[in-house]
Design brief:
This protein is 44% helix and 23% strand. By secondary structure, the chain is of the alpha/beta class. The strands form two sheets. Strands 7, 8, 9, 10, 11, 12, 13 and 15 form an eight-stranded mixed β-sheet that branches. The longest helix has 19 residues. The radius of gyration is 20 Å and the shape is globular.
Length: 401
């Protein structure tokens, strides 16, 4: 899927909070070997971002606007990979995807918005597949740790066995205004989300013959293995993991997945549920929804000091073929420091590791599009994928990497 383009990577939305972090990461990570550009609506703001980058990195500047389809096609046509942080994606993302498909440009983003991802699958999967383009959403904390952590976990189990994986998220971090707006708008558009989900199912069709994908028990319960309460987590992550399992044989003929937050105290579970219910209720009416949206403006995010204190640890309990394994994926502040790293490494993986990537195209998950190649990159970048416990068979019977 080699492409002769002016740039390996274009960062669209580089003047936003996360886009600036991505630009800083790329400047420090690949200044000498990467051909890249930053893009957005304001040339003056883009020049400010470029001037503040570390070292001698001076990416080119491209002007593009989501309201101008021709500017999007002009931008995407110059790059091998388009990395976009322009959200909320349900409002601004689809024209960028369409431009990438039109210009045969690979694409990554950091969305966690189910409606957007479902809509992109329904409307663009077939065209992207035919064009030989990889459209890869959810390349940040939503949903790389669950998706690639599950892939890493099932790789430790016998390949042809039915498998069960439960994931427990535990983190300390903050959130930006863009994330807040995405969440509130998602709560307000449940009807649209349901329609998009049905359209996605129709576009993807049934799983391959002989393969079943489902869920484990979805209820609050105490788990001694994690020393905490397992609380079902209604994010996009389970859908992403199950999409990977549909199409990758390594997950086995029958795969079951459970997705939870780890919570130390039951009172926290109850309080969190009440708070989430209140936000959902307020998001349903226009005046109260606008009040919620004013609480935090897009472009705002945690300070460097706050990010320095953040961390995440995701625990996976995998079982299959008489084997049992415990895996941990961990790193620093998840929402922004590690998300910018994850999406940047995803773009670098697509741009630079083509010969080592799976020969696939369409609207894909990170496990489908990049798999172990991206895991290796993330490990080199400081995100840990570790087997901490294994039992049930000889060590040479595993399939770990």
């Amino acid at each position: 899927m080699g492409k002769e383009r002016a740039y390996d990577i274009i960062v669209f939305g580089a003047t936003g909070f996360t886009g600036t972090l991505v630009s800083q990461y790329l400047a420090a990570r690949e200044a000498s070997s990467l051909s890249w550009a930053i893009a957005g609506r304001s040339e003056a703001k883009l020049r400010e971002v470029r001037q503040a980058l570390p070292g001698e990195a001076r990416p080119e500047i491209i002007i593009a606007d989501v309201s101008d389809p021709e500017s999007l096609r002009s931008m995407t046509g110059q790059g091998r990979v388009l990395l976009t942080t322009v959200g909320p994606y349900a409002r601004y993302g689809e024209p960028v995807v369409a431009a990438c498909v039109d210009t045969k440009t690979d694409y990554v983003d950091i969305t966690g918005e189910p409606e957007f991802v479902d809509r992109v699958i329904a409307r663009h999967h077939g065209a992207a597949r035919d064009a030989g383009v990889r459209i890869v959403s959810c390349c940040g904390f939503d949903s790389i740790p669950p998706d690639l952590g599950t892939l890493f976990t099932v790789a430790q189990l016998p390949a042809d066995a039915a498998k069960r994986v439960e994931c427990f998220m535990y983190a300390r971090g903050s959130y930006s205004g863009g994330t807040w707006h995405s969440a509130v708008n998602a709560f307000a558009n449940r009807g649209a989300m349901k329609e998009a989900r049905e359209a996605r199912r129709e576009a993807l069709g049934d799983p391959p013959a002989g393969r079943e994908v489902g869920s484990t028990r979805q209820r609050v319960h105490w788990r001694s293995e994690i020393k905490g309460w397992a609380c079902p987590l209604p994010t996009i992550d389970p859908d992403v993991v199950k999409r990977s399992a549909r199409n990758l044989e390594i997950y086995g003929p029958d795969f079951r997945y459970g997705h939870y937050a780890k919570v130390r105290k039951l009172s926290t579970v109850i309080g969190g549920g009440l708070g989430l219910g209140a936000i959902f209720a307020l998001a349903q009416a226009g005046p109260s929804r606008r009040w919620l949206l004013r609480r935090k403006a897009p472009g705002q995010g945690p300070s460097a000091e706050e990010r320095e204190r953040g961390w995440f640890k995701v625990t996976f309990i995998g079982e299959g073929g008489g084997h049992r394994v415990r895996v941990e994926v961990s790193g620093g502040e998840p929402g922004y420091s590690e998300t910018s790293k994850m999406v940047a490494e995803s773009a670098l993986c697509l741009a630079q590791d083509g010969d080592d990537l799976p020969d696939v195209s369409g609207v894909l998950t990170t496990a489908e599009a990049m798999g172990f190649c991206l895991i290796t990159r993330l490990q080199a970048a400081g995100i840990r994928f570790e087997v901490v416990e294994a039992s049930g068979g000889d060590e040479d019977q595993g399939h770990g990497r």
